[in-house]
């Protein structure tokens, strides 16, 4: 992996500009996002779970930025350099619906693990890598089908977002109009805002049905926006384009995999293999060196807390700013991150259920094989705590490695990862 030297910028001037320009504009930005998404026209087609071809939208991120947000990051600065790769914790929020006993969108854990592998392969050499911190699942048909609506998106994120300043929150759902995904630029909101994160069509993850967009690079693309990159065709053939010097100018999005396409004179062939274009997943495979530099600069300027992110201990959702109901998920259903983590020889797992339920708490190895059943029976409502001693169901000590523990109570499921380190 190529290590990118990172310069962290802490700007008093930027903070003042940011606070004055963003905090008072949340409502205006919400309305603007809704208007923009409503105007988007279908530009792709992909397969649904029934094998039918449906029309969709490659990305719902639209920017007509005429001023580089990094220009606001010039002024009084405190710099430090580090050659460490930054590991960003990822919280996956799986939104699904259940109708007449049939679940839609409740994707398997393996799709998420495969998505993490895709992200780490794509971002190798950029100075960023990603670590799965948690998985939670919410049965809510409104959030699942109407997250395209800004008000619904707000309700969902207020309820579920985990420490947005230090954590990348990814939400999988079924956005209206066939949208594959979207994210918000680092300078769109304060870094602690619940708005940050990525929304992805659930079937765009590896293992999903949305061919040719089902290899996981919708996630790669949207995280590029989250880290500060524009589309390669930003600005067309004129002006500053995507504010990246080594991506050739491109007049319009590229679709499929049009080898040799060249839409702007004098700059070289279009960057059809770049993750920030609109080509098929199997056509995308690169970020440029200057894109890596820009991501590092944008994160340093607007998401500095990511540079100090640590594995999550007992992560909690961001505080909701208005009274709301979380659909079918009880407020008291939680599975905390084990502590200590990593651990040896034992660790404590805490969880809470709001109502009397049949409860299952099991531990699995990295291959998905069950190694230990910790709870399997009817339990009364309340907060619980127990220890896992690192042994399997036969009393054998388990080797070092990553382990998954899954809590099921009634229809509700939550999964987290822990590390046994000997």
Question: How would you describe what is shown here?
Answer:
The chain is an alpha+beta fold. The protein is built from 7 helices and 17 strands. The protein folds into 2 domains: 6-229 and 287-308, Collagenase (Catalytic Domain) (3-Layer(aba) Sandwich), CATH 3.40.390; 334-420, Immunoglobulin-like (Sandwich), CATH 2.60.40.4070. It has helices at residues 12-22, 26-39, 109-122, 141-146, 150-160, 217-226, 289-302; strands at residues 6-10, 44-47, 53-56, 78-82, 86-99, 102-104, 128-139, 168-173, 181-183, 198-201, 334-335, 347-353, 357-364, 370-379, 382-388, 401-409, 412-420. Strands 5, 6, 7, 8, 9, 10, 13, 14, 16 and 17 form a 10-stranded mixed beta sheet that branches. It has a 3-stranded antiparallel beta sheet with strand order 11-12-15, with no helix packed on it. The longest helix has 14 residues, at 26-39. The chain is globular, with a radius of gyration of 22 Å. 43% of the residues are buried.
Q: What's a concise summary of this model?
A:
With 422 residues, the chain is an alpha+beta fold. The chain has helices at 12-22, 26-39, 109-122, 141-146, 150-160, 217-226, 289-302, and strands spanning 6-10, 44-47, 53-56, 78-82, 86-99, 102-104, 128-139, 168-173, 181-183, 198-201, 334-335, 347-353, 357-364, 370-379, 382-388, 401-409, 412-420. The two termini are 27 Å apart.
Describe how the helices and strands are arranged.
Layout lengths: L5 E5 L1 H11 L3 H14 L4 E4 L5 E4 L21 E5 L3 E14 L2 E3 L4 H14 L5 E12 L1 H6 L3 H11 L7 E6 L7 E3 L14 E4 L15 H10 L62 H14 L31 E2 L11 E7 L3 E8 L5 E10 L2 E7 L12 E9 L2 E9 L2
Parallel strand pairs: 5-7, 5-8, 8-10
Antiparallel strand pairs: 1-4, 2-3, 5-6, 7-17, 9-10, 11-12, 12-15, 13-14, 13-16, 16-17
């Amino acid at each position: 992996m190529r290590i990118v030297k990172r310069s962290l910028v802490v700007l008093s001037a930027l903070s003042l500009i940011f606070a004055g320009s963003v905090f008072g504009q949340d409502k205006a930005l919400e309305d603007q996002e809704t208007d923009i998404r409503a105007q988007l026209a279908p530009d792709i087609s992909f397969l649904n779970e029934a094998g039918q071809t449906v029309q969709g939208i490659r990305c719902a991120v639209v920017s007509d930025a005429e001023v580089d947000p990094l220009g606001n990051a010039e002024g009084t600065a405190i710099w430090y350099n580090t050659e460490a790769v930054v590991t960003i914790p990822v919280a996956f929020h799986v939104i699904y619906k259940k109708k007449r006993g049939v679940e839609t969108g409740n994707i398997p854990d393996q799709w998420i693990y495969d998505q993490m592998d895709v992200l780490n392969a794509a971002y190798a050499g950029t100075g960023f890598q990603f670590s799965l911190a948690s998985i939670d699942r919410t049965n809510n048909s409104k959030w699942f089908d109407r997250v395209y609506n800004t008000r619904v998106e707000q309700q969902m994120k207020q309820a579920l977002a985990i420490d947005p300043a230090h954590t990348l929150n990814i939400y999988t759902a079924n956005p209206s109009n066939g949208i594959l995904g979207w994210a918000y630029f680092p300078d769109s909101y304060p870094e602690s805002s619940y708005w940050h994160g990525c929304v992805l069509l659930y079937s765009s993850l590896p293992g999903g049905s949305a061919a040719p967009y089902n290899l996981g690079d919708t996630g790669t693309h949207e995280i590029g926006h989250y880290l500060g990159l524009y589309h390669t065709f930003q600005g067309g053939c004129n002006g500053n384009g995507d504010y990246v010097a080594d991506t050739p100018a491109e007049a319009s999005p590229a679709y499929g995999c049009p080898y040799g396409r060249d839409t702007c004179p004098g700059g070289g062939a279009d960057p059809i293999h770049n993750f920030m274009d609109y080509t098929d997943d199997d056509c995308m495979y690169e970020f440029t060196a200057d894109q890596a530099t820009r991501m590092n600069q944008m994160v340093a300027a607007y998401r500095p807390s990511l540079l100090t992110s640590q594995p999550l201990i007992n992560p909690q959702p961001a505080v909701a700013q208005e009274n709301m109901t979380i659909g079918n998920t009880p407020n008291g259903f939680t599975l905390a991150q084990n502590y200590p983590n990593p651990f040896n020889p034992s660790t404590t797992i805490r969880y809470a259920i709001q109502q009397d339920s049949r409860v299952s708490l099991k531990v699995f190895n990295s291959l998905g094989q069950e190694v230990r059943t910790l709870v399997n029976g009817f339990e009364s409502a309340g907060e619980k705590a127990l220890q896992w001693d690192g042994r399997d169901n036969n009393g054998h000590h388990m080797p070092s490695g990553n382990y998954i523990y899954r809590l099921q109570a009634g229809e509700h499921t939550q999964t987290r990862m822990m590390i046994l380190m000997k």
